[in-house]
Amino acid sequence: MKIRSVLLLALATLAACSRPNPNPASLIFINGKVWTGTDSSSFVQAVAIRGDTIMATGTTAEIAALTGDSTRIVDLQGRLLIPGFNDAHIHFLGGSIGLTEVDLTGQNTIANVVKTIKRFAAENPDKKWITGRGWQYTMFEGGLPTKEILDSAISDRPVFIRAYDGHSAWANSAALKAANITPATRFPGFGEIVKSQGKLTGVFKEDAMDVVSNVIPPLSTEEKLNALRKGIQLATSYGITSLTNCSGSPEELQLYRQLLDRGELPIRVAATFSVDDKTTFQQIERYTQIKDSVGRNNRLTSAGVKFMLDGVIESHTAGMLMPYSNLVPGEPSPTGNLSMPVERYRELVREFDKRGFMIYTHAIGDRAVREALNAYEYAGNDNGTAGKTRHRIEHIETVSPDDLPRFADLGVLPSMEPIHAEPGTVSVWADGVGKDRLPWSFAWASMLKANAHLVYSSDWPACVALNPIRGLHTAVTRRTIDGLPEGGWVPEQRIPITDALIAYTQGGAWSSFEENKKGRIATGQLADVIVLSQDLFSIDPMKTHETQVLMTVIGGQVIFEKADPQP
Ligand SMILES: [Zn+2]
Fold this sequence. Notes:
Layout: H1 2-18, E1 27-30, E2 33-35, E3 43-44, E4 46-50, E5 53-58, H2 60-64, E6 72-75, E7 80-83, E8 85-90, H3 92-98, E9 102-103, H4 110-123, E10 130-135, H5 147-153, E11 159-163, E12 168-171, H6 173-178, E13 191-196, E14 199-206, H7 210-213, H8 221-237, E15 240-245, H9 250-261, E16 268-274, H10 281-294, E17 300-308, H11 342-354, E18 358-363, H12 366-383, E19 392-395, H13 404-410, E20 413-416, H14 427-433, H15 444-449, E21 455-456, H16 468-477, H17 497-511, E22 529-532, E23 549-554, E24 557-561
Parallel strand pairs: 1-6, 2-7, 8-15, 9-10, 10-11, 15-16, 16-17, 17-18, 18-19, 19-20, 20-21
Antiparallel strand pairs: 1-4, 2-3, 4-5, 7-22, 11-12, 12-14, 13-14, 22-23, 23-24
Helix pairs in contact: 3-8, 4-5, 8-9, 11-12, 16-17
This protein binds zinc ion (ZN).
Residues 89, 91, 246, 459, 462 line the site of zinc ion.
């Protein structure tokens, strides 16, 4: 088989030499298994790239015939080549800055957490504040840490570390002092300065985290650009070729712009502006101007706005239709809360919809999900945009079965993170949701069955991993990489690898109206492709997490390559 392929290649190259190819490919992949992205049986052997686009797909012989003098030929030796990953919901600046901070991801004992923080502090003696993220609720008695644990690690410098989901943070006594917080300090907004028997615990929920984070000295532009460079390097090494930054500001957009102008933005970025109930008419007008001036191009766009409509299940800040299942006596909001009045949210949605923005709404509780669907429906009817928009709801960790058909009916996209259902991190979550609602937990299969356009992403750094492969593993198994629980957690919601890949490649392209440009391997599509170490379509799904990205090509340029991709 291999000898025959090489022979074909030799013949084709010979043909190309004797009669110079007028339009040669710049890069070709041959002898592979190329998933073109349409369905579970759409495979070809080879693909040719010229400039930044896919020139042709076909058999190795057909593609080898497109070789010219300067064509780079990659022999895939049977390996899988697929469209690049499109991470449709990510917090890229925060995640990238996190690469320069303490990282508690994957730590599951208090002793290890203390050790990691101590080591980081010793390695970074010049940092005035120790900041970072990644702790898990499940590690602590009652689901929340205490300042005393942090004090035992570091007492002479302020420490402020966010939870893995970014919705709570943990401070030591020095940080509380630096922010002038006493047991008498009150926080009136969405969130909480957590106290126990009148004493500060060092834990902050939601917007109350700002009380501390506002006193942390800001990074310089150059420090931020450096962090982004690290982030881009990591993302492309995981095969991410496009991303949608699901939070941000005009200032953050400027950072991407600077990288683009310096030729340092190989990855395709869609920047989004965070908006909330305090967003003014002037800001709406400003964002509209920026959207129109950035325009639609293949590298950097800015056409989305992101709302937060509720919080998270674990801290009972997600807005539910029915009370949480693990309420403690006297809890003030048994069904959680929405983070802004519904009327104000609808009004803002209508304004952004009218101006042609793509709207992304964070809604985790089933009530918040319903209100987001309602708001999109009203806006579509009011503005005459119904059927023309692709607004999204982000996360949808719980959903009422009554609302499932509305996604397809309204053209609203469920934008979800498979890694959020990683069974190792869901015990506190599952207690809050309770057994009656559990069948619609992270309901990917139900969404597909309801004909919704599922969009996948990482939500990095608000989760365990940026690596899409880890998300795919959870999508197809609903088990940890160690195989727990046997049989899978809410296994009826796992989905086949083809659907998971479509959600992680074409999902984001569809959401940004770019399905004719990217997400598939077809003539005329942008040449964003990746080579994987194993065939996701034929391996035991439990081995999915072992898959490595060997090569990442964006716009025909090889951006990442493992030292020796051809063993
Ligand atoms: Zn997010």
